[in-house]
Amino acid sequence: MSKLVIVGTVAFDAIETPFGKTDKILGGAATYIGLSASQFNVDSAAVSVVGGDFPQEYLDLLTDRNVNIDGVEIVKDGKTFFWSGKYHNDMNSRDTLVTELNVLETFNPVVPVAYRDAEIVMLGNLHPLVQLGVLEQMTKKPKLTILDTMDFWMNIALDDLKKVISKIDVITINDEEARQLSGEYSLVNAAKKIHEMGPKYVVIKKGEHGALLFHNNDMFYAPALPLAEVFDPTGAGDTFAGGFAGYLAKSGNISFENMKNAVIYGSTLASFCVEKFGTERMLSLKPEEVKTRLQQFKELTQFDIELK
């Protein structure tokens, strides 16, 4: 089994959707990625930073799920990163109400020595220079480096972002970000342009419309499972990334064919994440539930057709 390094925020979120609202709850990209990857019992380590106001019980939730937190720096006199957002009725768009960087503003990641030879590195959504700083600490080239990013960095740090994109194997972004990064409206052409920037694989997330995987001239599409209730989309993309990376770390197989399976696992886990607020659903998720939903995915997508 491969070691997995997870880089990203461990944070507080406050969320409002048409179904209700929360006070400050556990959030952050590294949190969702770690909880999702923990479904595969992989040897993973989170690299992040929190303030002295971050409850020990939240850190324990990660260690209880076999996520090493030696790389989570605690700044005793600092405050934890905080994000607040309000989702519109369509649940696909949202307004950011508050962003407080706090300890994240001066964060210099330190990868635990025991994980500097990790085979898989999952660079969660952070400033591109922080992501680069992690890659520079690895003592050997990872078997697979996965990058998640967003439009915010494209707007304020595009040159730095392109530097880190040139050094990674897989990029996961949503459809609008793929269009912005590439300047192409067609997602097929967008993926081609992004390939030219460095990544061998491009994963384009389309929310409730599934995900696309591109590799050279090969393409794979995984639908999202239609759900009766979606309470909170926060963290769904990170949960997808964690399932994708966790499955590949467990299987040790990074072929295009196996990445198809990883996309399905990522989509399956993301479908659970949206069922409750924040991390609540991922914290209660049982392996047998995942197995049952994978079977539903299989039935949703497989068919026999007679070609005349």
Explain this structure to me?
This protein is α/β, with parallel strands linked by helices and about 300 residues long. Helices cover about 35% and strands about 25% of the residues. It is built from 11 helices and 14 strands. Helix 6 crosses helix 7 and helix 8 packs across helix 9 (about 255-275).
Short description, anyone?
The chain is of the alpha/beta class and 308 residues long. It has eleven helices and 14 strands.
What are the SSEs and their pairings?
Blueprint: E1 3-7, E2 11-17, E3 20-21, E4 25-27, H1 29-37, E5 43-51, H2 56-63, E6 67-75, E7 82-87, E8 94-100, E9 120-123, H3 128-137, E10 144-148, H4 151-156, H5 158-165, E11 170-174, H6 175-182, H7 187-196, E12 201-205, E13 211-215, E14 218-222, H8 236-251, H9 256-273, H10 280-284, H11 287-301
Parallel strand pairs: 1-5, 1-9, 2-7, 5-6, 9-10, 10-11, 11-12
Antiparallel strand pairs: 2-3, 2-4, 7-8, 12-13, 13-14
Helix pairs in contact: 1-8, 3-5, 6-7, 8-9, 9-11
